[in-house]
Amino acid sequence: MTETQPANPYGVKPYSQLRAETAARDRSLHDKVVSLEEAAARIKDGEHVAIGGCMMSRTPSALIWALVRAKRKNLTFSRSIVSSDGDIVFASGIAKKVVTSWFSQGIVWGISRVMRAWTEQGRAEFEEWSHMSMGLRYRAGAMGLPFMATRSMMGSDVGRMRAGAAKDFTCPFTGDKLLLLPALNPDVAIIHVQRCDKYGNPQIDGLPFMDHDLALAAKRVILTTERIVSNDQIRRAPDRTAFPFFTVEAVVEVPFGSAPHECYGLYEPFFTHMDLFADMTKADVDKGVAEYLQRFYYEPKSWTEYLERMGIANLLTAARGGESIYDD
Predict the structure, then answer these.
(1) Is the distance from CB of 61 to CB of 259 less than 8 angstroms?
(2) What's the pLDDT tens digit per position in 82-99?
(3) Helices and strands: H and E segment counts in the chain
(4) Using CA atoms, how far apart are residues 53 and 310, in angstroms rounded to an integer?
């Protein structure tokens, strides 16, 4: 084993390798704005892609849409909780594996039919961890540590399923039994935010979820943003900046970039469209999801055309709901 190779089958990297990758980042303040297609081209086949946000919140849907259209292969995706984004990466064939704590379009739609079909028939792999464990694994990666000690998953079926990766440990101070979780250091994190400047200083409204740790744990970060604002505007509220610009490799401005999921303060989930996806995959999951991908991913020539197919009424309803949190 060399220092440039993963230390074990779970991809935990030695500190010297993490330090070298961090030192190699371009820390200059330069314009990082690219197109959606150029951003997708920066993600290579076989890489580990961490998805920011959580479930139906701030999903980088537009970049996932571009990855599907670019026909990437053998990607591993990780996320705290996946929604229909997990269905899309499985059904489109761009993912060989999804690492997460929960795999469902949403509570009202039940367990993902796509996930069941793809994993039960051996077409892809779903690696399940607890929600706390996912967060701690990203936190270990962000801190440059090889593992994080926890009591999460101990004595549970999820803990038994992950026995090959999580290791039993006896605390040297108290003698307590603990579990060591392997760090997650993705190749790239894709994160959607409400605003950022052209240099990649992002600001997030609402819950930040695990995005700060994702950005520091990943080798590089690609941001999609509802709008690009001036650096002066970012500097007026520096405490709102979620993570530093030098972690970011590229920035894409893409309005409604989380559709059909929500972006806090701007739009709610497109519930009618989510119902449509559930209905299309209910009777024949393979046929239904293939028709969905053809209609909303392969036929539209641009993200704007994708939004047009969702319908102006759905956009307005989602926007009215999202903006209603402001008492103005």
Answers:
(1) yes
(2) 999 999 999 999 999 999
(3) 13, 13
(4) 22
Which of 110, 44, 55 shows the shortest CA–CA distance to 85? 55
Over residues 254-271, the pLDDT tens digits come to 999 999 999 999 999 999
3-state secondary structure of 218: coil
What's the pLDDT score for residue 11?
Answer: 80
Rg (CA), the chain: 20
Q: How far apart are CA 94 and CA 219, in angstroms?
A: 20
pTM above 0.90, yes or no: yes
Determine the Cα–Cα distance for residues 183 and 134; give it in Å rounded to an integer.
Answer: 9
* Distance (Å, whole) CA 23 – CA 5: 17
What residues contact residue 167 under an 8 Å CB cut-off, 6+ apart?
147, 179, 180
**pLDDT band (50, 70, 90) for residue 156:** very high
Interatomic CA distance for residues 201 and 106, integer angstroms = 31
Could you say which DSSP state residue 283 is in? Answer: S
Q: How many residues does the chain have?
A: 328
